[in-house]
Amino acid sequence: MAYDIPAEWTKEADVVVVGYGGAGAAAAITAHDAGAKVLILEKQPRDTPVRTNHTPNTRMSGGNWLCPPDPEKAKLYIESMIKVSHETIDAGWGETIAVLAESMADNSRWMRAIGADTSASEEQMNHFASNVTGQNPQSTADGGLLVSDFPELPGADCSYIYTPRPVGGVKTGAVFFKLLTDAVERRGIEVLWETAGEHLVTEGNEVKGVIARRGGKTIAVRAGRGVILTCGGFEFNDWMKQNYLRCIPAYFTGNPANTGDGINMSLEAGAALWHMNAASWRAVMKFPEFPVAFATRHHTLFSIFVDKTGRRFTTERYHLHTFGYDLTAFNHDLLYPRVPFYWIFDEKRMASGPLASEHGACLQLQGKPGSSLFSWSADNLSELERGWILKAGSIGELAEKIRADADNDHLMRAAVLKATLKRYNSLCRKGEDIDFHRPQKSLTPIENPPYYAVKLWPGGPNTQGGPKRNKRAQVLRPDDTPVPRLYAAGELGSVWGMVYQGGGNLGECIAFGRIAGANAAAEKPWQASLH
User: What is the 3-state secondary structure (H, E, C) of 227-281?
Assistant: First the structure.
């Protein structure tokens, strides 16, 4: 339910931002610079000198933001990705896409204005060359790198991404977010920590404030001009994932505080939802000891993926941000035969580096005492001892160990897995994957025992769904009229749908965070005073 005007307000500001991630910070900075008094409500505790408590997805990310130099090409590219997924672009969405493309073109200038060094480091160039593009990407004088997830689509040659230079060994997502938080702190913008937005206050269909929970008590926060919802997706709301995503279960690597709060709040105000079945997702590892999943390194040499029956089903050099859809195949007998699936490799992959990516809430904040939940070992031996990695002297023995897994329903057969490996190794020797068209240079036989397996799940950094928004970042009702004084930005109701370009979420955080902040600050104040 939405709440009526309370008898007494606890706090007040011109613009109230619910959620302190990348979009929330950009919105708060912009609204403040437009002359508004801004208050941020953040669900998580603030950091301490010895512990990292505040883990928005922006901080957990790779720190890459999309900044296309040509807005017209960017609009064409985004529309091409939408059409691939057979979604219909109505007039309103088309306008929103155009504004997103135009605004993202200014992202790097704005980031430099708050202190970012965007000159690409050699480490960043090597990362994209080895893990993403497969070649040295084109670069710009100010550090932009051409990294297209879908180079075959029209307009893809505009997809330049930028990354802040690492500072003192701190990973780029943390560097990116610190640039934003430093800018918030310099402006003296107040943050109410451990304050979870729960409901919207409405009067005459207008949003007038927020009911929040702080220290076990309910508080009422007045928003004299507008409310901006930037409190993330529903990665850690099991009910929403089961009812909105295309396969279950799915596990995510980011912020455990992202439980769909903004979705519930916007529904109370009559909002329409969109993109609820979309996510930026890939293959992840999930273990009961930890609340969040581990992202896998996008490095599949010496390894293959097999479903629960032991068969390959895809190229292992997959599209990083859309691979989750490959796992949604439904079978009336097996339900989801690829959920979970298995990462099969030999000693060469085991010895070539950690299986887990450095991104995500478990690992990304290493370097600060007590800041990471877990430090994945460089040789993977600690995880082998934990039982997270299965080990066997033969493929037949490995199949039996996988069969013993309770989630596999005893579908794995040694003969099938042996045949799969024999077929794959023969394709490697011929130098052509005629089954799934894996790139030739990544074809390496799996024949150096012992053999290993890790259970994988669909998941990734974030969902995309939430309240539908227009080009002004206003939250829309089902009839496409805006909910007065209510705005949204970031992954909560992202403009991105099923098909997603890397760097797009952070690019959208900067772009639509600024749009939401500027438009909320420009609202005419409604007349009332603090009681």
Answer: EEECCCCCCCCHHHHHHHCCCCCCEECCCCCCCCHHHHHHHHCCCCEECCCCEEE
pLDDT-derived band of residue 437, with 50, 70 and 90 as boundaries?
A: very high
Is residue 185 within a helix (H) or strand (E), and if so which, with residue range?
A: helix 172-186
Count of all residues that appear for the chain in the document: 531
The amino acid occupying position 113 is A
Phi, psi of 129 (to 5 degrees): -65, -40
Q: Which alpha helices (DSSP H) does 308-452 contain, by range?
A: 347-350, 381-386, 395-403, 414-430
Q: In what order do the strands lie in the sheet with 160-162?
A: 65-66, 160-162, 145-146
pLDDT the model gives residue 1: 61
Phi, psi of 459 (to 5 degrees): 170, -165
CA neighbor of 203 nearest in space, from 474, 486, 520, 472: 486
d(CA 422, CA 517): 58
pLDDT band at 124 (very low <50, low <70, confident <90, very high): low
CA distance 388 to 265: 38
HSE-up of residue 65 (Cα within 13 Å, Cβ side): 35
Do 29 and 3 touch, CB atoms closer than 8 A? no
Is 370 in contact with 52 (CB distance < 8 Å)?
yes
pTM of the predicted model, to two decimals? 0.94
State which amino acid sits at residue 249: P
Over range 51-68, report the average pLDDT. Answer: 91
Amino acid identity of 497?
A: G
Least confident of 77-86, 178-187, 290-299: 290-299
DSSP state of 235: T
In whole angstroms, what is the distance from residue 57 CA to residue 45 CA? 15
Angle at 520 between CA 515 and CA 525, to 5 degrees: 160
Categorize the per-residue pLDDT at 85 as very low, low, confident or very high, splitting at 50, 70 and 90.
confident
- From start to end of 312-439, where are the E strands? 341-346, 390-392
Residue with tokens 């998941």: 459
> Any bridge partners for residue 331, and if so which?
335
- ω into residue 450 within 30 of 0, thus cis? yes
Phi, psi at residue 261, to the nearest 5°? -60, -45
Distance (Å, whole) CA 334 – CA 173: 39
Q: Is 29 within 8 Å of 114 (Cβ atoms)? A: yes
Residue 247, both tokens: 């396969």
DSSP run (H or E) holding 295: strand 294-295
Q: Which helix (H) or strand (E) holds 486?
A: strand 482-488
Dihedral angle of Cα 524, 526, 528, 529, to the nearest 10 degrees = -40
